[in-house]
């Protein structure tokens, strides 16, 4: 091959090598960043009871429909979760007995399995035909203190007029110091 052709081939090979090297370096940086971003979580199960006080809140003029009721919530938790929560609920009861729905937000402050902090719970519930569908989830990003990064779902059980909960939650595991 003439000298100019050899230089051209060598130039092409260098570009190809640099492209491959750059791609591998980029993938390595991306993978490391993703590994650092992913935190291992520990899943736990908390159980206990709670007392709830709900107080009707007067309708505000020109806000919503008067058929949608509003309640202030005040809870006291005991068991694996000890503490208090305050929140608000909006609810609607259908014309047919036993039908309706509600949404609620509450801020829980206390100690969960020895960890202190707070987090918000979001409720969405409906009832009809003798069936209840209730979804209570931790609001992402709402955890504070030792409960920062918490996620999970809570189930409420009402038997004999008493309230209990089962709370399945996860917390990020602390990264080991290097």
Low-pLDDT runs of 5+ residues are 5-14, 29-38
Q: SSE order, as H and E?
A: HEEEEEEEE
Which structural category fits the helices and strands? alpha+beta
Q: What characteristic shape results from the CA principal axes?
A: globular
Q: What strand order characterises the main sheet?
A: 1-2-3-4-5-6-7-8
Q: Helical proportion?
A: 10-25%
Strand content of the residues, in percent? over 45%
Instruction: Return Rg in Å.
Output: 27 Å
Count of strand segments: 8
Question: End-to-end span in angstroms?
Answer: 55 Å
How many helices does DSSP assign? 1
Largest sheet: 8 strands, antiparallel, barrel
The averaged pLDDT comes out at: 83
What does this structure look like?
This protein is α+β, with helices and mostly antiparallel strands and 178 residues long. It contains 1 helix and 8 strands; from the N terminus they run H-E-E-E-E-E-E-E-E. The protein has an 8-stranded antiparallel β-barrel. Strand 4 (100-112) and strand 5 form a beta hairpin. Mean pLDDT is 83; it is low at 5-14 and 29-38.
Helix/strand layout:
Blueprint: H1 3-37, E1 41-57, E2 69-79, E3 81-93, E4 100-112, E5 115-128, E6 131-138, E7 151-159, E8 162-172
Antiparallel strand pairs: 1-2, 1-8, 2-3, 3-4, 4-5, 5-6, 6-7, 7-8
């Amino acid at each position: 091959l003439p000298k100019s052709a050899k230089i051209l081939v060598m130039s092409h090979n260098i570009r190809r090598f640099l492209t491959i090297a750059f791609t591998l370096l980029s993938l390595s940086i991306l993978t490391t960043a993703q590994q650092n971003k992913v935190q291992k979580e520990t899943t736990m199960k908390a159980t206990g009871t709670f007392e709830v006080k709900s107080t009707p809140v007067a309708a505000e003029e020109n806000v919503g429909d008067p058929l949608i009721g509003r309640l202030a919530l005040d809870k006291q938790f005991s068991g694996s979760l000890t503490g208090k929560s305050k929140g608000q609920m909006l609810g609607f009861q259908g014309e047919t007995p036993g039908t309706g729905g509600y949404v609620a937000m509450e801020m829980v402050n206390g100690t969960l399995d020895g960890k202190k902090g707070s987090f918000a719970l979001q409720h969405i519930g409906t009832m009809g035909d003798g069936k209840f569908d209730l979804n209570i989830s931790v609001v992402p990003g709402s955890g504070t203190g030792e409960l920062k990064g918490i996620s999970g779902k809570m189930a409420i059980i009402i038997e004999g007029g008493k309230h209990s909960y089962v709370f399945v939650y996860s917390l990020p595991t602390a990264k080991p110091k290097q």
